[in-house]
Specification:
The chain is an alpha/beta fold. It folds into two domains: 20-57 and 302-401, Alpha-Beta Complex (Aspartate Aminotransferase, domain 1), CATH 3.90.1150; 70-300, Aspartate Aminotransferase, domain 2, CATH 3.40.640. It is 40% helix and 17% strand. The chain has 13 helices and 16 strands. The chain has helices spanning 3-13, 28-38, 60-66, 83-94, 111-122, 139-144, 165-171, 194-207, 248-251, 269-281, 288-322, 350-361, 387-401; strands at 44-45, 105-108, 128-133, 149-157, 161-163, 176-182, 192-193, 210-214, 228-229, 242-247, 260-265, 330-331, 339-343, 363-364, 366-367, 378-382. It has an eight-stranded mixed β-sheet with strand order 2-11-10-8-6-3-4-5, with helices on both faces. Strands 12-13-16-15 form a four-stranded antiparallel β-sheet, with helices on one face. Helix 2 packs parallel to helix 12, helix 5 packs across helix 10 (269-281) and helix 11 crosses helix 13. The chain is globular, with a radius of gyration of 22 Å. The two termini are 43 Å apart.
Length: 402
C-alpha cells in the first residue's frame, strides 16, 4: 500500500463507527489455504459448517414445491411473523414434547438477528452479556455491532463439560443484563444438565437478568442422558425471563432460507414480546415466501435432519475408535452438535499444528483458540464432513501426530 493511499484510507476510516474496529487482515492459516487452493491442492476440509455443501441428499422436489404458493403474491406483514408460520414452529416443538402457544413465538431472519433484537430489547450501550468460553466466536461481533460488551464465563472440563459457576459469579457486574448459553455448546457439544439449569435460573432470577438460550443444535444429541436439558422453554409464569432460539439453518439444514425464531418464557415474557414486536416492526426482515413455505419445509427437513444425525454419529464413532486408548490424541467427550474437539500433544502450538496439517497433509482443521479455548492444544473437526473425507483426514492427522 502506498504511503499516500494509506493516509487517505486512515482519513476515510475515521468516519466509521468504532463498532467496526476489527482487524480484517488475513491470518497465516487463511493465507496458506488461499495458496493451496490457487495451486489446486486437493485439500481435505474438516471444517465444513454449511450443510448444503456437505453432500446430503436433499428432498429437492418437496423443498421447491413449498415455495410454489399463490399466497406469496400478497403482503400482509405481522411483526411477530405470520400466525400460520408460528403455528408450524409450535407443531415442530410439540413433536419434541414441548407444548408452546404460537403467541409466545417471534420469527426472525436468523439466530444472529434474534441476538441483535434481544440485545436491543435488554441492553443499552455499554451494558454487558455474559457468554460462554469456549464457544462459537460470533458473540463478540454480534455484541460489538449493538454497542454491547460480551464478557466471558468459563466452561470447565473434568471428563464432561459443565458451567463454572464461580467464573459466572466473577463475571457478573452491575452492567450485566443477560447470560447467553449455547445448548448444546459449539464446539464442545455439551448439553446443560438439570442441576445446571436450576442453578442458572436461580442465578438469573436473583439478579433480575435474562437468559438467552441458543438451541440451534438441540436436535443433534448423541446417545441418551436423562440429565440433559434440550430446551430452556417452559410454561411457568414465574422465573427469569428466558428466550430460546433456533431456526431452519440447523433444524432443517437450510441456512439459505433465512428464518429463525425466538420463544419467550418466564416473568415479563408478554411485555418482552411486545418490545420485540416493536423492534421487529422497524425491520420486517422475514420474507413472506419462507413463512408461507415453513410448514412444508419443516416436514421436508426431517429427512435432512436424519441424514445429519447419521453422518455426525458415524464420524464421531470413527474418531473415537481411531484415537482410542493409548493414542497420543484424545477426543473430548461430545454429547451433541456438529463439531468435535480433539486434544493433541502440546509439542507445538495450535497454530503450528493447523499450519503443519494444511501444509504437509493437505488437511484443514481449526485451532481451539478460534473458539476461545483457555489452554492448548486442541483441534476442532466438523462431524458434518462427508464420511470418506472425514476418515481420510483423521488418518492423516493421526499419521502427523504419531
Amino acid at each position: 500500500m502506498s504511503r499516500v493511499f494509506a493516509g487517505a484510507f486512515a482519513t476515510i476510516a475515521r468516519v466509521f463507527s468504532s463498532r467496526l474496529n476489527w482487524d480484517a487482515r488475513p491470518n497465516p492459516l487463511s493465507e496458506l489455504l488461499d495458496q493451496k487452493l490457487e495451486e489446486g491442492a486437493p485439500v481435505l476440509d474438516l471444517t465444513e459448517s454449511n450443510p448444503t455443501h456437505a453432500g446430503l441428499d436433499y428432498p429437492g422436489d418437496e423443498i421447491i414445491a413449498a415455495a410454489y404458493d399463490k399466497a406469496i403474491l400478497r403482503y400482509d406483514p405481522d411483526p411477530r411473523g405470520a400466525w400460520e408460520a408460528r403455528e408450524a414452529v409450535a407443531v415442530h416443538y410439540a413433536a419434541l414434547q414441548l407444548e408452546i402457544d404460537p403467541s409466545r413465538i417471534l420469527l426472525t431472519a436468523s439466530t444472529s438477528e434474534a441476538y441483535a433484537y434481544l440485545f436491543k430489547l435488554l441492553m443499552g450501550p455499554g451494558d454487558e452479556v455474559l457468554v460462554p468460553r469456549p464457544s462459537y466466536p460470533l458473540f463478540q461481533y454480534l455484541a460489538a455491532v449493538e454497542a454491547v460488551s460480551a464478557k466471558t464465563y468459563s466452561l470447565g472440563y473434568d471428563g464432561e463439560w459443565h458451567i463454572d459457576f464461580a467464573s459466572l459469579e466473577a463475571a457478573f457486574s452491575p452492567r450485566t443484563r443477560a447470560i447467553a448459553v449455547v445448548n448444546p455448546n459449539n464446539p464442545t457439544g455439551s448439553f446443560l444438565k438439570q442441576e445446571e439449569r436450576e442453578r442458572l435460573e436461580m442465578f438469573a432470577a436473583q439478579r433480575g437478568i435474562a437468559i438467552l438460550s441458543d438451541e440451534v443444535f438441540s436436535d443433534y444429541g448423541f446417545g441418551e442422558d436423562t440429565r440433559r436439558v434440550t430446551s430452556m422453554i417452559h410454561d411457568r409464569q414465574t422465573g427469569p425471563l428466558t428466550f430460546s432460539m433456533s431456526g431452519l439453518s440447523k433444524v432443517c439444514g437450510l441456512p439459505q432460507m433465512k428464518l429463525g425464531w425466538i420463544v419467550a418464557s418466564g416473568d415479563e415474557s408478554e411485555n418482552a414480546l411486545n418490545g420485540l414486536e416493536w423492534i421487529a416492526d422497524t425491520f420486517l426482515s422475514v420474507a413472506t415466501p419462507v413463512q408461507i413455505a415453513l410448514p412444508r419445509l419443516l416436514a421436508a427437513g426431517e429427512s435432512v435432519r436424519a441424514q445429519i444425525q447419521e453422518r455426525t454419529s458415524g464420524n464421531l464413532a470413527f474418531l473415537e475408535e481411531f484415537f482410542g486408548e493409548g493414542s497420543a490424541a484424545r477426543p473430548l467427550h461430545i454429547e451433541g452438535g456438529w463439531y468435535a474437539p480433539l486434544q493433541v500433544p502440546r509439542t507445538r502450538s495450535e497454530e503450528d499444528w493447523v499450519l503443519s496439517l494444511l501444509r504437509d497433509e493437505d488437511v484443514r482443521v481449526q485451532p481451539g483458540f478460534f473458539y476461545d479455548f483457555e489452554s492448548e492444544a486442541y483441534l476442532i473437526l466438523s462431524l458434518l464432513t462427508e464420511s470418506t473425507l472425514f476418515e481420510e483426514g483423521v488418518r492423516r492427522i493421526g499419521a502427523c501426530i504419531e
